[in-house]
Amino acid sequence: MATTSSGTAMVTLPTDEQILITREFDAPRHLVFEAWTTPELVKRWWNAKRGEMTVAEIDLRVGGKWRYAMVTEDGFEVAFHGEYREILPNERIVSTETYEGVPEGVSEEDATTVNTATFTEADGRTTVTILVQAPSKTSRDAIVESGMEAGLQDALDLLEEVAVSLR
Amino acid sequence: MARAATTADAFNAVAEPRRRRILDVLAGGERPVNDLVRVLGLAQPQVSKHLRVLREVGAVEVREHGRQRLYRLNGEALKPIHDWVKGYERSWSERFDELDSVLEDLKQEEERDGDDE
């Protein structure tokens, strides 16, 4: 009953400019919301074990700013920031998200998405959906591509583990 | 024709919202073109045009059944798209696995604090 749900995130592409991420958690939504919006807690999960989270600033009010930064194991900083546009405690957060590492020539606008996180509870479990609205298909595709690199990196890490275990 | 080049891969084939809609409908099972016309609210020539593009990339297959032609989804052809999204999905899965353990701790804390609901 109290097992950790470890389901997988489901990602779909509803339109050319959107990404929809869905995942169910074995916890009531007020706890999911707490984990989502408390800096010390965000620092424990947002980095997904890919490095250390150095910054988690959250000014949770409409117009308030947020900024997350992590340093990957090879010393590379990855940072995002944005602004809260709508906050419905335990239900919904609408915020902007700007990736700080865009290549030269890409405008801030092109690197900014509007993300809507929704928390729905049923039988003590919470479904979280994140709808990422990108400014263009190119931008949306670039975001998905970034994940592809991460996926590839994981694969290489796994390969290394396997290789080491064979020594 | 230049058009062929732009529609000859799965990514372009599903870039069109109505073609995605067709795939959604076919995901529910094999359908004759009339069904698609009705569900999509488009004229038959248009539906046929979209079906042709989807067939070119192998996303949709067709077979004769009596006087009808039945269309069905071929998921294998959409695999490149699936693979592409998979990496991104994996980043989030890993992130959420960590969130699971944070939530487990929060639940235990709440129990300890005597919240016996």
Given as residue ranges, the uncertain stretches of chain A (5+ residues, pLDDT < 50) are 1-6
Percentage beta strand of chain B: 5-15%
CATH topology annotation of the largest domain in chain B = Arc Repressor Mutant, subunit A
Topology pattern of chain A, helix = H, strand = E? EEHHEEEEEEH
- The name of the CATH topology of chain A is Alpha-D-Glucose-1,6-Bisphosphate, Chain A, domain 4
Structural class by SSE content of chain B: mainly alpha
If you had to describe this structure to a student in words, what would you say it looks like?
The complex is a heterodimer of chains A (167) and B (117). Chain A has one domain: START domain (Alpha-D-Glucose-1,6-Bisphosphate, Chain A, domain 4, 2-Layer Sandwich). Chain A is built from three helices and eight strands, in the order ββααββββββα. Chain A has an eight-stranded antiparallel beta sheet. In chain A, a hairpin with a 5-residue loop joins strand 1 and strand 2. The longest helix of chain A is centred in the C-terminal third of the chain and has 30 residues. Chain B is built from six helices and three strands; from the N terminus they run αααβααββα. Chain B has a three-stranded antiparallel beta sheet. The longest helix of chain B has 34 residues. The termini of chain B are far apart. The N terminus of chain B is likely disordered. Classes of the chains: A alpha+beta (167), B mainly alpha (117). The interface between A and B is medium-sized, with 43 and 26 residues.
